[in-house]
């Protein structure tokens, strides 16, 4: 297939991978959906507005419609075909004595000066959220002129990557180290750009300060950074103050799911592994609430189906023990992770925490930023054309100088 030209310096030997569940697994999902009841109608699930952090979640009506579609008008095989239209691989990476099987999609260039680009997702996202952007890249460019070597992994514990160790703790810093080994082992040890939103933004922060191979960082989430005084808050522009208000709403009324993940990951992991309807309700709320315009039902069912077929929900939420445990850690507000390397930031008004550019600038060497009038938490998924343009413009600004810097 095109776009499969790994560097000769690669030390890892990726194995081709094909997404394919069995017919028995497909029928098993449909059977569970048919016999799964939906709870009774209540005042809360009738009047709730899922877009509002201060409201009460999803409506029963939406869940009924989603269930009906999932059973009768949804074709996972089409999604598999789309996944398999890209170059998928798995590779084994050793980290502290544990063998991680990491799945990734690669879109590789034949240009000698193409910038290696690591795209990291989060929860409840997956590598699926970057497929639209990858489509944009391979439509716009041939493999001879693609300006990037793009690697889109399933984070450790997510999707087609295996889960963390069962006998010891595993943290965001460990996941970051695994991805750094992935990029270096694929032949990009001389330098790469780390880009991320959600948990991927934390991983990119860590890579920007701990990896010598990571030469620049781009973020579309910087949660945890707040004005230090009323005066600083008042100095912000009107849209920036609205962003802080939205962030506060998320912090007070929008993150109950994250506190559950962080304080009772064992319980919620087992609960949502037992019911596809429960899983869809849990993550479907986020797909709707954190976006500017609702994704299509097809896209939301794609996300839920991937989590269900890979059994990845309980093994994917380990990071929340850091984010919402006894001592919350958000990396973006931690001075040890302030990025001295070139930092870029894309701001979207419907992000769950639209942190203003001036505040992000205090946490690193912010050399590039762009404020959008649309888009939310899943920027590459929601607005792939904007995302591709941001990546192109950020790389043009920083790559030639960053890759030679000894930072």
From TrEMBL:
<feature type="domain" description="Epoxide hydrolase N-terminal">
    <location>
        <begin position="15"/>
        <end position="130"/>
    </location>
</feature>
<protein>
    <submittedName>
        <fullName>Alpha/Beta hydrolase protein</fullName>
    </submittedName>
</protein>
<dbReference type="Pfam" id="PF06441">
    <property type="entry name" value="EHN"/>
</dbReference>
<dbReference type="GO" id="GO:0004301">
    <property type="term" value="F:epoxide hydrolase activity"/>
</dbReference>
<keyword id="KW-0378">Hydrolase</keyword>
<dbReference type="InterPro" id="IPR000639">
    <property type="entry name" value="Epox_hydrolase-like"/>
</dbReference>
<comment type="similarity">
    <text>Belongs to the peptidase S33 family.</text>
</comment>
<dbReference type="InterPro" id="IPR010497">
    <property type="entry name" value="Epoxide_hydro_N"/>
</dbReference>
<dbReference type="GO" id="GO:0097176">
    <property type="term" value="P:epoxide metabolic process"/>
</dbReference>
<dbReference type="InterPro" id="IPR029058">
    <property type="entry name" value="AB_hydrolase_fold"/>
</dbReference>
<feature type="active site" description="Proton donor">
    <location>
        <position position="320"/>
    </location>
</feature>
<feature type="active site" description="Nucleophile">
    <location>
        <position position="198"/>
    </location>
</feature>
<feature type="active site" description="Proton acceptor">
    <location>
        <position position="377"/>
    </location>
</feature>
<dbReference type="InterPro" id="IPR016292">
    <property type="entry name" value="Epoxide_hydrolase"/>
</dbReference>
